[in-house]
Specification:
A hairpin with a 6-residue loop joins strand 2 and strand 3. This protein folds into two domains: 50 residues, Orthogonal Bundle (Arc Repressor Mutant, subunit A), CATH 1.10.10.10; 75 residues, Lrp/AsnC effector binding domain/regulation of amino acid metabolism (RAM) domain (Alpha-Beta Plaits, 2-Layer Sandwich), CATH 3.30.70.920. The protein contains five helices and four strands; from the N terminus they run H-H-H-E-H-E-E-H-E. The protein is elongated and about 55 Å long. By secondary structure, it is of the alpha+beta class. Helix content is 33%, strand content 19%. It holds the Pfam family HTH_24. Keywords: DNA-binding, Transcription, Transcription regulation.
């Protein structure tokens, strides 16, 4: 799907606030409400908008610890990749997982209530996933930028 400047403005506004009414969105992108709704539906149908959700405050909900965990796997095991994916799918503490290049195979974002819960998660769950060879954890002290969404947004304004 080819997107034009109006589609880009729609995507930018929805990314900033997915709770906008169609009327407000239409005003912000200088379209009639019906034209705006048609464009949003086309963007959804094309898969450019995958969904809408609330962004929760993990700390206020009691999940005070965030960690980045580098995981290295034993790649000589048959089915090592699939086995690891199945293993991490079982654990809600893992909020994101990425396959990466470099010294490790995966980087995981992990959220737990506190350091004791994180330690238990690593010892009792993560390290016991078959094929896990090495773990290196980094505790997030303070988030200085958390944007989400996609880039480059500056050119879409």
């Amino acid at each position: 799907m080819q997107i034009d400047a109006i589609d880009q403005r729609i995507l930018y506004r929805l990314q900033e606030n997915g709770h906008l009414s169609n009327q407000d969105l239409a005003e912000q992108v200088s379209l009639s409400p019906s034209a705006c709704l048609r464009r949003v539906r086309a963007l959804e149908d094309a898969g450019l908008i995958r969904g809408y959700r609330a962004v929760l405050d993990a700390e206020k909900l009691g999940f005070e610890l965030e960690a980045i965990v580098h995981v290295s796997l034993d790649q000589s095991r048959p089915g090592w990749h699939e086995e690891f994916l199945a293993g991490i799918a079982l654990h809600d503490e893992i909020t994101e997982a990425s396959i990466v290049t470099g010294a490790s195979n995966y980087i995981l974002a992990v959220r737990t209530r506190n350091l004791a819960a994180f330690s238990n998660f690593v010892e009792d769950k993560l390290s016991k996933i078959p094929g896990v060879r090495d773990l290196c954890s980094h505790i997030v002290m303070r988030k200085v930028k958390s944007r989400g969404g996609m880039l480059p947004l500056a050119s879409w304004r």
